[in-house]
Amino acid sequence: MLNLSSDELIRTVWRGRSRLALFVGSFAVLGVVVALLTPSEYVSEARIMPEMNSGSGDVFRRLASVAGFSGIDLSDAEGLDAVRPDLYPNVLQSTPFILFLLDQPIVTSTGGKLTVAQLLDPDGDKPGFSLLNWLRPHPNATAVSTPAGPNKPVQLTFRQQQLAEEIEKRVAARLDTRSGVISISARMPDASAAATVAQQAMNYLTQYVTSYRTEKARQDLHFYSQRLNEARRRYQTAQYNVFHYNDQHKYLVVQAATMDRQRMEAELTIAQTVYTELSRQYEQARLKVQERTPVFKVLEPAKIPLLRVSPKRATLVLIYALVGLLLGIGYLLARQADVISKLRAIVA
């Protein structure tokens, strides 16, 4: 066991200062090499504020007072099952979004055009033998870009799985529960790519939420549109039949003619009633689509970052130099205690 006072430790370090400087210098040079070889990383962030439903009810209550004259019912306009903003970050961690993002084209700061997958894994599509590819299970499995269906599982290749895990680390969204602002960040090895990915993530999120919120209303609108077209054709046909029949039997008064006229007029009345009701429901469905469409206010668009976030080259070199200093001191202390000779004797 080596017992040294502080004075003895300082003298030991001073006597071996040349070797200590060699340790520190060598590790500092190694730190410089590592810092230069480590790819730069850039972060771009966008912030949006989603719609809060509290304000939409007043608008539709005022509209309901006008719509009431035409028989349009907006009483259920406030009872919406909105997608909670705290669930928005989960959308950007989903497999459909990741597969969508991997195929998106981007333009790098140098003007190169490639996809996100090619940027993150530039050697993934190159032919030839690779030990990593040889070790992968089923490396040539067929890739999928979108889910096969809502009730079918998605099969990813090994490369896609690795890229998906990488995207989960690089693209994220967080919700400020106090202000309701959603921040979307993207970290990429290229400044222009980071801004593009952040913008694409923001667009995907807003389109996804809009589609989710309005899907049922749009389906209802499409259904009522088809039924309204059918009812319009039926009403126009019944109307034409009545007018045409009246023109042909204008001066004919017989019981059979009266029965036929009453039958066609009854058909016209039914057709008109159905057409009027479907018109009312169609207008109500149009209002529901508009009411359910969320509004997103872009507070801060995605910007191309000017400074990298990593590596911190000065810090990295300093850490390596500090490691060299500690190892050098350890070497001098081991030499002072003749630990190296004792280890050699034990080995021999």
Automatic annotation (TrEMBL):
Listed InterPro entries: Bact_polysacc_biosynth/exp (IPR050445), GNVR (IPR032807)
Domain Tyrosine-protein kinase G-rich: 263-337
PANTHER family found in the cross-reference section: FERRIC ENTEROBACTIN TRANSPORT PROTEIN FEPE, TYROSINE-PROTEIN KINASE
One cellular-component annotation, GO: plasma membrane
Keyword rRNA-binding found: no
Source organism of the structure: Spirosoma oryzae
Chain ranges passing through the membrane: 20-38, 314-334
Keywords, comma-separated and alphabetical: Membrane, Transmembrane, Transmembrane helix
Classification via Pfam families: GNVR (PF13807)
GO molecular function: protein tyrosine kinase activity
Top-level division of the source organism's lineage: Bacteria
The name this protein goes by in its record: LPS O-antigen subunit length determinant protein (WzzB/FepE family)
